[in-house]
Every structure is written in structure tokens, then in C-alpha cells.
Amino acid sequence: MSDQYTIFVDDDRWSVGVLRDDDVCLYAVDFEDDAPIQARAEAARRLLESIGYEGRSILLALPSSWCLCAEFSVDGLERKGRRRAMGFLLEEHLPISVEEVVADYQETGDGKTLGVCCELDKLRPIIEAIESSGVAVRHISPAALLAAGGVLQSHPETGALLADWRDETPESSRGGCDLIRLRDGGPTCWWWLPGDGQALGEQFAAWGRLHDCSVTLASARSGGSTDAIHQAHNAFECVELENTGPPQEAVRCAAGLLSGSAEPWIDLRRDALAAPGRSQVFGRPLGALVAAAVLLLISICVVCQWRGWEYRGLREQYARRQVSVFKDTLPTQRVPGGGIKRRLLSERRKMAELSGQSLDESAAKPLKTVSALWRLRDILKNLPKGVRYRILDWSIQPDQIRISGQARSHAEAEQIVSSLRQSGLYEVDPPETRALGERGVSFEFVARPSSPQASKPLPSRISMTGGVR
Predict the structure, then answer these.
(1) Among residues 311, 340, 364, which one ends one of the domains?
(2) Cβ within 8 Å of residue 115, ≥6 positions away
(3) What percentage of the chain has pLDDT greater than the value 90?
(4) In the predicted model, is pLDDT for residue 216 greater than 70?
(5) Which has the closest alpha carbon to 148: 176, 204, 190?
(6) pLDDT tens digits for 71-81?
(7) In this structure, are residues 76 and 89 in contact, taking their beta carbons and an 8 Å threshold?
(8) What stretch of H or E contains 285?
(9) Quick one: CA torsion of 309, 315, 316, 322, rounded to 10 degrees?
(10) 454: pLDDT confidence band, cut at 50, 70 and 90?
(11) Mean pLDDT across the stretch 122-143?
């Protein structure tokens, strides 16, 4: 699995965790104590690049002191608008309004939900600074819950986790302990407490009075906290996690989330802090594509309209020419409203009968023209294969085609002519050849269509220099 990166943020210091070859490495981000958010984000990006970051999305882990949580009942809530309703229920336990926070919820069973939130004003500048530095944030989750998830992966029987962060922040007076109650593979309660034994003892005593059942308590780097646990209540079966700590467990859990193997219990990368969707990421290129498509359609419509006007003008021009021809031919007769061509053919037939001549109906048919491109296609299609020659000049007229070029021998020049004769499309005169010494022979011949059709002049002439084959 590729390296997965986690950024731990706090008021005083940031750090980066990476799971590499099943080992967790932690690196402190170096910046001044009074450094602004943007400078801290740039320092984190430089650190990531120095340890092999390749542009993958990261997970942002939040300290417990930034988070507020509460467990509340969701019985009777409708499915429609459920999250909005849960926000109002969570607000009853908060010192601030729900509009000022971003929240997520974890179902705990028995019709209850654990709601966790963090202030928008604290998170938004950090997200904007990190992403403006070129690092994409995929998930935002409390570090304590990530640590609980990591412990559950290695100790599925764990019913509670005591995570002591004081060893990780010795210079910070806010270093404390997280106590998380776990059930059915998820958190049900979460307390953040000072790290002294008295506060922990009081919390365990209260917990023991509410919960008669014994639970397995995993303690990560608790130091003197273990003694407080035993002194407070003997119902807990304590398991000391050796050679690991909350940050290491959090990094292991985050790596699984980033790889897509699981979803975070609490993900604050939502609502006002939601990651930009595809429509937002590709919004500008898509807008440009739509604008180009609309412009193309408008251009096509304009061109079609313009060509329609052009064809209408040609039709009117030809109609005027027909009228002019009719008036010149039959000046004493009225121009018919329609069918001028039929009227002229009728007059021609009448004149032929009066003169005692028979009128060939085929001759009365309109004369057809043949495009020089069709002639050119037929000739190229029937030129011989496997013979080297060069066509120097074409002259394509309605009744004949004159071709001149060069070949290696008289026999090959004759082979070109024979190939055109065998096609049955042309009657080809014998070629006129002339020796060119070492360069072979020059040839010139005339080909006439086998079924020539009378046509008006099409002075098409195509000249080529260089080898055709």
C-alpha cells in the first residue's frame, strides 16, 4: 500500500505522521511560535515533500481540546431532514449555535447518537491554507477517535480506551487524556479530561456506578494513569499497550481510511467544509466547453442560414435566366407561371414534327456534367500495381484525358496504358514514348471515356510534379 500521510494540528505545534512498511513515523513541523496559519501550512507541505509526499490526499487530525461532543436521543426523528434535526438536538448541549460549527454524528445504538463538532472559524482558515499550499485534505477527524479506531483494529475486545497525550505535548499545559467508551465497533461516549489521577478516578467511579458490566480498558502511554484506574474501580480489566501511543494508533487508523478500506466514525470534511466536488473542480473547463459548444451551434445556424440565402439567390438568378431565355426564344408568347423547361421542350418537339424530323428523346434530356475529380479517381484506381513510374502532368477535359510522365522502360509505359484499357472505362491511344538515357523513358497518351457524355466545358487541369508511385 502507498504511504498515507496524517497532519496533526494544534494551537502550539503541528506534526506529520506516515505509515510506511507497517511502521509509523512521526515528524514535527518546524515553524515559529507566532507563525501565521499560511506559514505553518507551507512548512507542513515542505516537510511532506522532504519525506516522499507524492500529492495524495491527507487526513487532518484534530486535538480533543478543539472538539465538543454530546450523546443524545434520536428516537422519533424523520428520515427526511434528519441531519438538520440532529444539529438542533446537539445545539442544546453546546455553548454556541449550531450554525457556528461543523458536526458529524455516529449512531451508538439504543436510539442514541454521539455528535461531535468543531468551530468553523478555527477549521476553515487551516483547510484553506493547507489546500492553497497544494495539499488536498480528504478527511477531518478527531485524533482521539482515530486512536480508538487503531486500538480496535489490534484489540477488538476493547471496551474503552484511555489515551494519554501528555507525553506527546510535554510543553503544553493543555495536554490531557481522552477516555472513550467503545461498543459494537464504535464510540458511544467521549470525555476529554486533565491528566491527573484525581479527575480520572472521579470519572471512573461515576462510570462504574452507571455501568455494572466489566469492560476491557486499553491504556496507551498512560504513565501514572494506570494506578488511578485501579484505585478508582476494580471492575476494569486493564490492558497496557506497549511500544505504541495514541499518535501511532491514530496514524494506523488514518492510513486505512485514506486507502478506502473503511469510513471514519466522525468526518468533519462536510457541509461548510466539504471537499470540492467534481463539478467544482472541473467547473471552469466544463463552462468553457459548454460555451464553445453553444458558440459552435450558433455558428452552424448562422452558416446554414447564410447558405440558405445564397441558394435562394441562385434559384432566383436561374429563374430570371429561364425567363430571359424563354422571351428570347418565344418573344410573342406569354411567359408561363411554371414549367418553362417543359414548355420549351414541347415547342422543340412541335418544331421537329413540323419539319418532318424525329426527335431523339435521349437528346432532349438535360446534359450532364462529369466532375474532373471522378475522372481522376477512376484513373488512379486503375493504374497498375508494382510498377514504378512518375506522373508529371494531367489534363482532364470532358471528352479526353491527357497524361504525361516517366517510366523505367517502354514496356512499363505500355503496361500503364494496358491497365487503363483493361478497366473498360477508357479507350486509350498507344503511348508516345521517348528514351531519356539512364533516367528511363518519358511517355504521353490520351484516354477517352468509353461512354462519353456530352457536357459543357469543364476546363479542369491538374498538374503534379514528383512521383505518384
Answers:
(1) 364
(2) 69, 70, 71, 72, 86, 89, 90, 93, 103, 104, 105
(3) 31
(4) no
(5) 190
(6) 999 888 888 88
(7) no
(8) helix 283-329
(9) 170
(10) very low
(11) 92
- Please determine, for residue 359, whether its predicted confidence score (pLDDT) is greater than 60: no
H and E: helices and strands count for the chain: 13, 18
Cα 343 to the center of its chain, rounded Å: 65
Nine cell digits for residue 430: 498507344
pLDDT at position 460 is 44
pLDDT for residue 369 is more than 80: no
Same domain, 314 and 406: no
Q: Provide the domain limits for residue 20.
A: 4-275
Question: What number of residues does the chain have?
Answer: 469
Q: Which CATH number is 144's domain given? A: 3.30.420.380
- Return the closest-CA partner of residue 53 out of 23, 22, 20, 28: 20
pLDDT given for residue 213 in this prediction: 47
Structural domain count, the chain: 3
* Predicted local distance difference test score (pLDDT) of residue 221: 53
For 93-199, list the strands marked E by DSSP. 101-109, 112-119, 137-142, 160-164, 176-183, 186-194
Using alpha carbons, list the distances in angstroms from residue 253 to 79, 235, 334.
30, 28, 98
